[in-house]
Design a protein that fits this description.
The complex is a heterodimer. Chain A is an all-beta fold. In chain A, strands 2, 5, 6, 10, 11 and 12 form a six-stranded mixed beta sheet that branches. The relative contact order of chain A is 0.34. Chain B is built from no helices and eleven strands. In chain B, strands 2, 4, 5, 6, 9, 10 and 11 form a seven-stranded mixed beta sheet that branches. In chain B, strands 1-3-8-7 form a four-stranded antiparallel beta sheet, with no helix packed on it. By secondary structure, chain B is an all-beta fold. The chains are: A mainly beta, B mainly beta. At the A-B interface, strand 5, strand 6 and strand 10 of A face strand 5, strand 9 and strand 10 of B.
Chain lengths: ~110, ~120
């Protein structure tokens, strides 16, 4: 069965620190990959997505992610975080030619200290 | 585009009562998803529809939960009877499936359900 692992449950950073959140998935076929963000009290919003092409994907608010097929990974990065990045981040995977549902990781809570 | 619309935004009810949550997907989207989010269990997929047809309801916790999608612009999630452990935020999401490729989902604002 497909699964998505986010090993960091809670990350605490100071403003201007660099961020990298890990995401690994288990599926041998072609996948589409997503990162969603959920700000406190709000719904999930798309940060970025990868379908094909350049494995380095740039999203909104200065976030980027790199798809490394050999490692089944899609880590999220940001060079300098801000207090407003405090949120929960979800990695998700959908399988091309499969059902249309997303498989979500358990989420990583990011707390940025001013 | 109004996005995914959910109602009510907040619902407080007593144990044993029937609860109906409503969702209007983005116009033109052909897939609709119901999720539940709690602190303990995180984000769980309850059921999803493609072209108004339920595809996978394996995430529906019990027979007390049921979902319908009578047309492309409306879906309901019903809990009858409700229990305190059903308290959660329920999200609806929609997407447009192109060919065989799963696409990004757009989430509604959620319904925060409290069962006393």
């Amino acid at each position: 069965a497909q699964s998505v692992s986010q090993h960091n449950h809670h990350v605490i950073l100071s403003e201007a620190a660099s961020l990298e959140l890990g995401c690994n998935y288990s599926y041998g076929g072609t996948v589409n990959l997503f990162w969603y963000v959920q700000y406190p009290g709000q719904h999930l919003q798309l940060l970025l997505k990868y379908f094909s092409g350049d494995p380095l994907v740039k999203g909104i608010k200065g976030f980027e992610a790199e798809f490394i097929k050999s490692k089944f990974s899609f880590n999220l990065r940001k060079p300098s975080v801000q207090w407003s990045d405090t949120a929960e981040y979800f990695c998700a995977v959908t399988i091309q030619t499969g059902a249309n549902n997303l498989f979500f990781g358990t989420g990583t809570r990011l707390t940025v200290i001013p | 585009d109004a996005g995914v619309i959910q109602s009510p935004r907040h619902e407080v009810t007593e144990m044993g009562q029937e609860v109906t949550l409503r969702c209007k997907p983005i116009s033109g989207h052909n897939s609709l998803f119901w999720y539940r989010q709690t602190m303990m269990r995180g984000l769980e997929l309850l059921i999803y529809f493609n072209n108004n047809v339920p595809i996978d309801d394996s995430g529906m916790p019990e027979d007390r939960f049921s979902a319908k999608m009578p047309n492309a612009s409306f879906s309901t999630l019903k809990i009858q009877p409700s229990e305190p452990r059903d308290s959660a935020v329920y999200f609806c999401a929609s997407s447009h499936r192109v060919g065989g490729r799963g696409n990004e989902q757009f989430f509604g604002p959620g319904t925060r359900l409290t069962v006393l």
